[in-house]
Write a structure and sequence with these properties.
Helix content is about 10%, strand content about 70%. With about 190 residues, it is mainly beta. It has one domain (about 25-185): Porin (Beta Barrel), CATH 2.40.160. The strands form two sheets. The protein has an eight-stranded antiparallel barrel. A two-stranded antiparallel ribbon has the order 2-3. The radius of gyration is 21 Å and the shape is elongated. The relative contact order is 0.20. Keywords: Signal.
Length: about 190
């Protein structure tokens, strides 16, 4: 009986050690090139054209390796998106700050490159604009896809596109879209 208990303890410790080796934590940050697109972009009954804005993102990641060529990477990011609005008379910028939670499936395309695909849920934390309106929706859902490049065992670069699937505004049918370029470090 002692041998069975000892064998169970050794297997449990061994599997816990293997599990700990397959999870890596880290952080990343970078630039956002964000815009808002839609069929009806109106503010206070006025039509506007949008242009992209440059903003930022940063946060924590966890890479959970499930097999040799497949991993799941949940992230917790602060990300700013939005657009610059213009018409013939005025121009202003709308910047939305989100707590974003992408969960990416990482499919290895080689030793140093992976294809990253998955959903992203975001909760609005702040809205900064040059006009008197608080019209942003508090929840945003989108799909993300991109590539990761492992420069070393710990340092990586990522490029990603996030397409918003839900309306970002209560008053217009606009969706967020953002191209992200990131650098990060895994422990």
């Amino acid at each position: 009986m002692k041998r069975v208990i000892l064998a169970a303890v050794v297997l449990l410790v061994g599997s816990a050690t293997m599990q700990a080796q397959s999870v890596r934590f880290g952080f990343k940050g970078g630039l956002n090139f964000a815009n808002q697109t839609g069929s009806e972009i109106r503010v206070n009954s006025t039509n506007y054209k949008t242009d992209a804005i440059t903003s930022y993102h940063g946060g924590l990641i966890a890479e959970i390796k499930l097999t040799e060529g497949f991993a799941i990477q949940p992230e917790l990011l602060y990300s700013t998106v939005g657009a610059s609005y213009k018409n013939a008379v005025e121009e202003f910028e709308n910047e939305l700050g989100y707590l974003s939670i992408p969960v990416m499936a990482k499919i290895s395309l080689g030793k140093a490159v992976s294809l990253d695909l998955g959903p992203q849920a975001s909760i609005l934390l702040s809205e900064k604009n040059k006009f008197d309106a608080k019209n942003a929706e508090t929840f945003d859902f989108g799909l993300a896809g991109g590539l990761s490049f492992n420069i070393t065992d710990n340092f990586f670069l990522q490029g990603r596109y996030v397409l918003g699937l839900t309306d970002a505004s209560k008053e217009a049918q606009v969706k967020n879209s953002v191209v992200q370029v990131s650098a990060g470090f895994k422990f």
